[in-house]
Amino acid sequence: MFDQLSEKFSNLFRNLSGRGRISESNVRQSMESVRNALLEADVHYDVVQEFTDRVLQKAIGTEVLSSVEPGQQMVKIVFDELVALMGPVDTRILYVDPPPTIIMMCGLQGSGKTTTCGKLGLYLKGKGKNPLLVAADTQRPAAMEQLATLGLQTDIPVYREDIHANPVAICRRSLDYARQNGRDVVILDTAGRLHIDEELMRQLQQIGQSVKPHQVYLVVDAMVGQDAVNSAKTFNEKLELDGVILTKFDSDTRGGAALSVKSVTGKPIKFLGVGEKLEALEEFHPDRIAQRLLGMGDILTLVEKAQLHVDEAKAAEMQEKLAKDTFTLDDFLEQMRSIRKMGPLKQLLGMLPGVGSALKDVQLPENELNRVEAIIQSMTVKERKSPDDVDASRRRRIAKGSGTLPDEVSRLIRSFSQARDMFRKMNNMSLKGRYRAMQDLQNISPGALASGNISNAVRLLPSRLSPEQKRRAREKRRRGK
User: Fold this and answer.
1) Is the full-model pTM beyond 0.85?
2) Is residue 115 part of a domain?
């Protein structure tokens, strides 16, 4: 998402580089292409007009500081306006006392509402809560079965009744069940329709009046673009939404909904669905989205993913091995498996500064990682420890055992050696040097680089583990010994 927009912004800043002053003529010319890109991305016309006017107003006549290039100064102006356009957003959920806190989920059919209920339940569970999922969508029988399956996958109880039961009564009785069973958050999966109609709105309003939810979230599909914003506006007029959850944000959509929802409806995007896995629900941060749009990457989100899926003690141990040149293909394989839990490879690489734009036309098939794993598993213990010593006959044997070609075995070994050497050098580099080295890593095989070394890359960038986290990691290693 946002590839075309990101490219247009990059062209804008490039056109302004080398100038001594940001003038009206060069800014207007550059912003015209950005305006067209925003409209092509299905951003609401009024939002585009307001955004470009504000950027022009702030940029025209701005004197360039002696230490800053015009392009860099323009980045700051555009970044601030993008954040203002999408924010402010507070992703915290205010819990009531006594419980339960009631969250009502609504949306059209096909928006991913039921799946998002399961994702939100798992998210809350990770925050130490005891959620209850409520199957109140009697309009679509499969929704009840789907929610029950999600409950089993997440180990979250699901309250359900007969398909012919009244949805309002189901929601009301689910609150008694939650109180009796110690569930402190109730997530109501309400009915959807193929389109907004009076019957749907009447049922949702009745549920709202009966159980008085503390939060009402609308789930909308990012792929429908401007229609998502129109739906949000209509739902908000009838229900008074507290926020929007944008699903399928990882798809190749135009991205207009993310930039338009807050301005048009006045309601913030609270969460993003960024994949099919139940863990693929992220809090919405306008500043991080603006960074992605401007090609700055999103290191904070990458660090959070790494801390969630990569064991701190293991990561510290791997970094120590890299520094001492004892990092092996067994370590590589272990890290690859950890990294794959974090999400799609291209999505993760796109969070590294300067790498996202370089990957916009690159296909990174996930099955490449399966082949990498097969190659490593076909090696002997000695070969994994010293891959540089693998000769031609051994490469043929490994290729035959893994169902690959000898050239692929050679490419993996070469990429592994290059990445290992680069990361070892980065341990002793300055902050500026690390950023430069990250750019050089683009020349190494993406599959080999990302699968084996993203967690180490994260640790070497500014947003690395805190001293306290490092101390805990050292204690874990000490206890393990």
Assistant:
1) no
2) yes
CATH number of the domain at 274, please. Answer: 3.40.50.300
- Exposed, middle or buried by CB within 10 Å (0-12, 13-18, 19+), for 403? exposed
129 and 172 share a domain? yes
106-120, 243-257, 301-315: range with lowest mean pLDDT: 301-315
pLDDT at residue 433 above 80?
A: no
Q: Are 348 and 272 in the same domain?
A: no
Which spans in 310-405 are helix H? 312-323, 329-340, 345-349, 367-377, 381-385, 392-402
| 190 and 60 together in one domain | no
Structure tokens belonging to residue 231: 């739906």
- By mean pLDDT, which of 8-22, 163-177, 193-207, 346-360 is the weakest? 346-360
pLDDT at 456: 46
CA–CA separation, 392 and 389 (whole Å): 10
Q: Are residues 162 and 195 in the same domain?
A: yes
Q: What is the mean pLDDT of residues 166-193?
A: 95
Q: Are 343 and 476 part of one and the same domain? A: yes
Give yes or no for residue 155 having a pLDDT over 70: yes
What is the Cα–Cα distance from 206 to 226, expressed in whole angstroms? 28
61 domain residue, yes or no: yes
The tens digit of pLDDT for each residue in 277-333 reads: 898 898 998 888 887 777 665 555 665 666 666 666 666 676 677 666 677 888 878
pLDDT the model gives residue 421? 72
Tokens of 234: 């209509």
Q: Taking a C-beta distance cutoff of 8 angstroms, is the pair 459, 453 a contact?
A: no
Q: Let me know: does 448 contact 371? Beta carbons within 8 Å.
A: no
185 and 255 assigned to the same domain: yes
| For range 448-454, the mean pLDDT | 42
Last residue of a domain, one of 293, 325, 341: 293
Q: What is the extent of the structural domain holding 314?
A: 299-480
d(C-alpha 457, C-alpha 459), whole Å: 5
CB 189 within 8 A of CB 105: yes
First to last CA, the chain: 45
Q: Which burial class, exposed, middle or buried, applies to 178 when counting CB atoms under 10 A from its CB (0-12, 13-18, 19+)?
A: buried
- Whether 357 is in a domain gets the answer yes
Amino acid identity at 383: E
* DSSP H stretches of helix in 183-270: 198-211, 226-239, 256-265
Kindly state whether residue 128 falls inside one of the protein's structural domains. Answer: yes
| 165 alpha-carbon distance from chain centroid | 38
